[in-house]
Design brief:
4-stranded antiparallel beta sheet; about 120 residues; 8-stranded mixed beta sheet; about 0% helix; mainly beta
Length: about 120
C-alpha cells in the first residue's frame, strides 16, 4: 500500500523553527510534484509550497522568505523547513503528491494523494 506519512509538527514559540517531513511508504517508482498545504480552524485548506521532481519550487506569499521546501527523491521524502514562525502559521499541515506511480500486488497509478496531517501550533 502506498501512503504519505507526515512528521515533525509540534508546539513552538513565535520566532521559532520546525522542520516537517513527509515520506511516501510502499513500493514507489516515481512521484511527480509534492507539496505542503495547511488548514487552520474555520478556514479552507491553502497552499504553502510545492516542489517538482526536478526541484522547481513554488511558494505562497505567506511562506516566501521564511519557509523552504526540499525533497530527497531517493528517499521519496519531502521536507518543509519553517523559520520565523508566527501565530498565524498555526494549522494542520498536510503533505500532497499530485501523482504517484507504485506497486502493491499490481501497478498503482495514484493521483492527488494526501497524508493525514501534522499539527503545528505557534504560541504568542
Amino acid at each position: 500500500q502506498v501512503q504519505l506519512v507526515e512528521s515533525g509538527g509540534g508546539l513552538v514559540q513565535t520566532g521559532g523553527s520546525l522542520r516537517l517531513s513527509c515520506a511516501a511508504s510502499g513500493t514507489i517508482f516515481s512521484i511527480n510534484t509534492m507539496g505542503w498545504y495547511r488548514q487552520a480552524p474555520g478556514k479552507q485548506r491553502e497552499l504553502v509550497a510545492t516542489i517538482t521532481s526536478g526541484g522547481s519550487t513554488n511558494y505562497a506569499d505567506s511562506a516566501k522568505g521564511r519557509f523552504t521546501i526540499s525533497r530527497d527523491n531517493a528517499k521519496n521524502t519531502v521536507y518543509l523547513q519553517m523559520n520565523s514562525l508566527k501565530p498565524e502559521d498555526t494549522a494542520v499541515y498536510y503533505c500532497n503528491a499530485d501523482k504517484i506511480l507504485g506497486y502493491s500486488d499490481y501497478v498503482l497509478d495514484l493521483t492527488d494523494v494526501w497524508g493525514r496531517g501534522t499539527q503545528v501550533t505557534v504560541s504568542s
